[in-house]
Amino acid sequence: MKKLMTGNEAIARGAYEAGVRFAAAYPGTPSTEILENLSTYDEITAEWAPNEKVALETVIGASFGGARSLASMKHVGVNVAADPLFTWGYTGVNAGGVIISADEPGMHSSQNEQDNRYYAKSAKIAMFEPADSQEAIDMLKEAYEVSEKYDTPVMMRLTTRVCHSKSVVELSERNEVPLKEWTKQPQKYVTLPAHSRMLRVTVQQRLDALSEYSEKTPFNRVEMGGGKVGVIASGMCYYYAKEAFGENASYLKLGFTNPLPANLIKDFCSKVEKVYILEENDPYIEETVRALGIECTGKDLFPKWGEMTPDVVKAAVSGEANKTIEFDKDKLIARAPSFCAGCPHRGFFYRLGKRKDIMISGDIGCYTLAATPPYSALDTTICMGASISVGHGAQKAFNMGETGRRVVTVLGDSTFFHTGVNSLINTIYNNSNTINVILDNRITGMTGHQQNPGSGFNAKGDPTNMIDIETLVRAIGIKHIFVIDPNNLEEVDATLDKCLAIKDEPSVIITRWPCVLKKFSDADLEEFDNLFATKNVVDHNKCIGCKACLGTGCPALSFDKEAKKVSINRDQCVGCDVCAQVCPVKAIAKED
Amino acid sequence: MTKSILLVGVGGQGTILASKILTLGLMESGYDVKMSEIHGMSQRGGSVSSQVRYGDKVDSPVIEKGSADMIVSFEKMEALRNLDYLKEGGVLIINDEQIDSMSVITGRENYPDDVLDEIKKHAEAKVLNATELAEKLGNVKAANIILLGTIIKSMGLEHIDWESIIKANIKPKFVDLNLEAIKVGMNEV
After folding, report:
1. What is the ipTM of this complex?
2. Interface test with B, best of A29, A166, A237, A346 (most B CBs within 10 A)
3. Of A130, A6, A151, A140, nearest to A64 (Cα)?
């Protein structure tokens, strides 16, 4: 059967067809939909883990236990999972195991542009790079064969355009692979130094065997054209190259990219006059080609960052950009993403941003948008869970000086479970005095509403144990805990005042109100009164046109320049009351 | 010959559903199809775009600047923002709707009054009010399918069995509305 699938849907389908039984992930663009789709197959146990390290470790365990298994994550997630990954490279697998890394050339939704192909090389494991959805299925099935035959973890490296582009695929039946028997093999599975020194030798032998595989696999193939130009590319760059260089050029399309096929590369390059290497992020293939002593054109010509789309390639090669319509760019207005109408982050950050003389240490989630106007309420963001620990370090430094500057750290519920909880343990252990805010909107918001350990449901949507954040924070040893409604601006102000007055001890504020886009659970409906069930309306007789409410940055508000009055879009408003509390003349009320 | 259609708008306007129906129709009628979207932060009121390419054999799912055979913009500022994707003589359809961004709402920027004039200086554009037309049909949410109708007509895709594609992918109670919306869109161009 033919179907249009994104690369992420195809990875899930490929896993199903390959007989995968266990999968785990932490959400992150552009990888999120892989596990969401895996969770729809009854044959696969699919789990959201609190972070990528835990996800990969459960997958390693499932592989040892005898089930074909898969972990998926965005590129920076592999940093979190790097510790188990490198040692898994030594132990190898029992049943086949694959880690999906979804890289983000161009940083559409990411904080950096790292090239995770170096992880495969450094961990000395096999790697595939599909170019479209059909290849995602075919290569993933092959990845499990390679994993089991060569006793290696396999990395499959995707990029945003592979993950989120749809193309036509042909579906097949599932290969029901039986569970493999687990036997005690401490020399293989227990990485004592004495064992690891032996495993290190095995790893090298495995790399040699994989090099041979790389030379002969049909996923590394040559397409000879009539001309003098040869292009080497992997993943989506192959299609970009085909589009830019056309049918006359020759191509070495690399689908298996660690180890790279040295002989195939040498042979291909000997048959063409000029070799181009097209790749996104870093010169991973190019470095190997140059090390082989082959003259080539790569990052010396093509941009070192961003996506290598065909227009970028053509402009670099010909020196001339495509002819495009020139227009007055001054007429453009910015359209950055913003908090939704009714977002529980709005009220909190609107008030927090008014505080002077504090440093706000932020984290990764929708609330990172608080860094932008009208809030300007974030001073740093590094990585998942870092708000609390970066804030701790900053506070210790400030405490050495005379400013008396306090640090407020902010992160979401899912991010707290991810790695923030470790940082909070550090905060109490090392006698910090930071104010730590957990924005508990009852779901993982930014990536599109994935369940987490605090939401009460698992990845399959079934009810499960719910970890209570307040109890957890208390167990860690935090004495000053405040649970507040972030839409109540007076409560937000009063609680910040209280926490700032506690000079020598850390405090935690838990703001508790669900994401406006969430599908509410019975527990949500029970806990929260009138959940987004009302509307606010402006009394134009009272409105003085002062625009104070517009400062809350709500997309439901608009200002009529002629009438000098604010109106509320009834379709968007969910009655959070934040604008009503800001209005100096009480012109905004609940609709009758 | 590969054709390229760019659908642009603001998060929540229904560009994704329109491009989904479009790509399914193209696939069912035997074309090779690729579509690229950027998800993530764009969902929070940011600009969105769906790039659709079809033909005998499609390589890149991404449309080059200066090469779109057709741009359909669900919002007029987004038409201007993406004007450099249109190829010379390409078809440009604009929904005459203004959606203020956060910088406009908070008064840091003004939404210029002459966006359509600026566009028309450089390209021939068909401007329609799909939102009003949808209201006349009884549901503003059909605006995206009206715009799909303009694509079907402009790109000569009337031969595809859209009725069965709509029936297979839209809730039964909205099927008639959406079939009517396609017709309205086709009549506009």
Report:
1. 0.94
2. A166
3. A151
